[in-house]
Design goal:
about 220 residues; alpha/beta; six-stranded mixed beta sheet; globular; Rossmann fold; 10 strands; four-stranded antiparallel beta sheet; about 25% strand
């Protein structure tokens, strides 16, 4: 089985300051990989994840998806399969259900439809009852907002999750709800893969089988937790 994502000498430079934020990085993400990346703030963890998500264009090097380079025309399709979740969820006005239906109004997902049963199952994994769908997004706590943001992504069945400290601002209960959702997503298909950037070493141990470390833009240390 070929790698889901591979990088070859991938770099990212801050053009304004002329500083290399990500040193040339060779990396492979295989199906079923659960990888955590830890490191100090400013070490390049988020820079690497955003480059993988093609949210910030790499300065040099290459990203391969299923063994092939990604053309500009393919980037929206790529982002449907390789999903990035940030620390701060961005929700639209309206109810939780409005937010979960929103992706299906976008061009990339118009051929798909909202599945209430699947969403209700996902809510259950996070300890939420079906009536949670009627809550106003403006009234949600930070943890609830992150659960909604994650379910909005998971319902689209991505191949890969790129999780950029999604629980850093959450209380322990909300963090465990997010972790439960990720575990349930993995259980649904063993070909899926995940990279979890975290400051929490205990969480990194719980949520990954491969632990990498980032320091001054250098990714290193494939160890088995």
């Amino acid at each position: 089985m070929s790698a889901l994502i591979e990088t070859r000498a991938l770099t990212r430079q801050d053009e304004r300051r002329q500083v290399l934020l990500l040193q040339p990085t060779d990396f492979i993400l295989n199906p079923s990989d659960r990888i955590s990346i830890t490191g100090a703030s400013g070490s390049g963890k988020s820079v690497f994840l955003r480059a993988l998500a093609l949210l910030d264009a790499p300065t040099s090097g290459q990203i391969l998806w299923n063994g092939q380079p990604i053309s500009n025309a393919e980037i929206p399709h790529y982002r449907c399969h390789i999903s990035y979740l940030s620390q701060r969820p961005a929700l639209i006005e309206g109810t939780v259900e409005d937010n979960l239906r929103f992706p299906f109004s976008l061009k990339t997902s118009r051929k798909r439809s909202f599945d209430l049963k699947a969403v209700t199952t996902l809510l259950g994994h996070a300890g939420k009852a079906p009536d949670f769908l009627a809550k106003n997004a403006a009234d949600l706590s930070g943890g609830e907002s992150q659960v909604v943001s994650l379910i909005r992504t998971l319902q689209l069945n991505p191949e890969v999750l790129l999780l950029d400290e999604p629980t850093a601002a959450l209380d322990p209960t909300s963090s465990r709800e997010v972790e439960a959702l990720i575990d349930a997503w993995f259980a649904g298909d063993n070909a899926r893969a995940c990279i979890w950037v975290s400051h929490d070493l205990d969480q990194a141990q719980r949520m990954s089988r491969i632990h990498l470390h980032m320091n001054a833009g250098v990714l290193s240390g494939a160890t088995q937790p």
